[in-house]
Amino acid sequence: MVINRRSPGRICALFHVVSTMLRRRDKKRHVELKMDQALLLIHNELLRTNLTVYWNSERCYHCLFQVLVNVSQSRRAGEPSIAAVGVSAQHGSILQLKATEEEKEVCRLEYKFGEFGNYSLLVKHVQDGVDRIACDVVVNEDPVDSNLPVTVAFLIGLALVIAVCFLRFLLSLDDFNNWISKAINSRETDHLINSELGSPSRADALGGDSQLEAWGPAAAPQRLRCVDTFRGIALIIMVFVNYGGGKYWYFKHSSWNGLTVADLVFPWFVFIMGSSIFLSMTSTLQRGCSKFRLLGKIAWRSFLLISLGIVVVNPNYCLGPLSWDKLRIPGVLQRLGVTYFVVAVLELLFAKPVPGSGASERRCSSLRDILSSWPQWLFILLLESIWLGLTFFLPVPGCPTGYLGPGGIGDLGRYPNCTGGAAGYIDRLLLGEDHLYQHPSSAVLYHTEVAYDPEGILGTINSIVMAFLGVQAGRILLYYKDQTKAILLRFTAWSCFLGLISVALTKVSENEGSIPINKNLWSISYVTTLSSFAFFILLVLYPTVDVKGLWTGTPFFYPGMNSLLVYVGHEVFESYFPFQWKLGDDQSHREHLTQNIVATALWVLIAYILYKKKIFWKI
């Protein structure tokens, strides 16, 4: 093109056209990236070939590809058509490119994008002896390290732990002259600490009961700090993930099969609730409380838990003023209330005095913690048989019998409305779709559109099984009191036994086993896996906290003593300052993580202050 210097108007017009084209191109490339996203520029150098780009996550099992973007054909050689789109950086991505008109696959590739990275996907013909189409990913701008804030937070926490331990060591050196007397009086110190714990041990299986008293012969009351510590660990992780967990995917619930950190805490809480049920009930009966009166207390506590869950801690408040039309009936506290009632009544009906130390000489003494509760075990096995029968044999309209999938786009989109199979069907049939959780985790990857409640009716059966396994842990602690080796041996045996069951059910696979680990379903493999972990944690905590006294359980012990208050409080005050504030950058993991850690730490501080003032909320 020859530019006429005598025509400044034409020159200005030309520059205007070029600048307009460049602005349109820049605008086309500009995408407002959100957290856990990367920018992908797709360069189509193919002449006469429009492209449709499809996307799928590697974590989405047997899912339909979703249309990501359409890219028009290149108008002339060397001038590719460009389309910009944001892609997920949480997991690996599978990209499929098809010719739009022919629906013919051009190429397919897998790639793990980094957060806020800038990438180009170059689609072009190459000549290397054979004419073929190449699809190559090029990094334009490096992504950020989105996990760096977690690493920094972990190192800071580790440094604090080391600093505290070192400070205690220095203090012990300052008191060197008295260390012998302190060692001699350590048992008396522990007795004074335990004697100050008072009423929480006697009252609330959820709020912190772990007294050990033999039912029959009188014994000095002791408190197992490992039980409260374990409860506190589960509760604090629960508070942290409920507040957002820094918006990291591994601090959120799994979309369907598999485990994340968020999937661990609720079953552990149920497990330790079962341990507390046995320990508190034994202590109460030993003090002479009648079974009928205790039954009334159990029923009242269960009613209060269910009422708190429905009226106070109800996520459907986010839909506006709560009404019966949109009231979520299932929930965390509701499930705890039902589970507590069934397991506590079961133990109450078949309660027996704890055998004395002479019982160890009797026949089959090594199994007395199991044989003494054979009626309860029969009931639990019957319950599990009901779960298996309904899950795998109940006909569900429009769905394959025994379906355990997420529905939506899973299973190649064949069963979009079958989320949860029998579990979802029973809840929708008995409770109604409007009374269930409206934002299940399966909607994230699997795009499910039907309501599904992870705390539904059928899953409650397996939460009862989980709590009863916790009862078994409490029974071991009480039946083999002062026999550390016997306790640790049984914790090890149970952990290995339940772990082997999980291996058999899952084939050590996320999706390929006969019964995958699934928090939404509360599958039996989920229960056995988390119970195996729970026995292992007690295996570590019991000798560390209660036998050797190497750790007092701080800071988890304090929220473990006031668990109901901390749980309800963190739900009610979630949106209030100082638990939440306006962030400078709402798309920053660092800012969210800081906010969530501060909010969680505040609840630990509140629990500590209440413990020091001997204030415990019990029902």
From TrEMBL:
Ranges annotated as spanning the membrane: 148-171, 232-250, 265-286, 298-317, 337-355, 376-396, 457-480, 487-505, 525-544, 556-573, 593-611
Heparan-alpha-glucosaminide N-acetyltransferase catalytic domain residues: 223-344
Entries under Pfam families matching the protein: HGSNAT_cat
InterPro entries, alphabetized: HGSNAT_cat
Keywords of the record: Membrane, Transmembrane, Transmembrane helix
PANTHER family on file: HEPARAN-ALPHA-GLUCOSAMINIDE N-ACETYLTRANSFERASE, LD22376P
Stated name of the protein: Heparan-alpha-glucosaminide N-acetyltransferase
Native species: Equus caballus (Horse)
Lineage: Eukaryota, Metazoa, Chordata, Craniata, Vertebrata
Originating gene: HGSNAT
